[in-house]
Amino acid sequence: MKTSFQNLNKAFDNKIRLGIMSVLSVNSRASFNQLKEVLEVTDGNLASHLKALESAGYIAVNKSFINRKPNTNYEITPSGAAAFESHLQALEEILKQL
Which top-rank group of organisms is this from (predicted)? Predict the structure, then answer.
């Protein structure tokens, strides 16, 4: 069982980061406001977790303007998708061993 726990990715230990990756793994992209609403978190809290995932290379940020208003969208990167899939597989292995 020790091996399965070692395969968990520390970047996804936090429930907000896990939620972000879950949303982005089933949607091609999500806006800051969509993530904030779905995860029910504050702007600052969400921003810090998004920055951590971006720094790890797990998500990409796309900024644009819609009718002169800033619009920020996030999408999962190929390396982020692979890391998240590995994390989920490790969780499944742990559950199977219980």
Answer: Bacteria
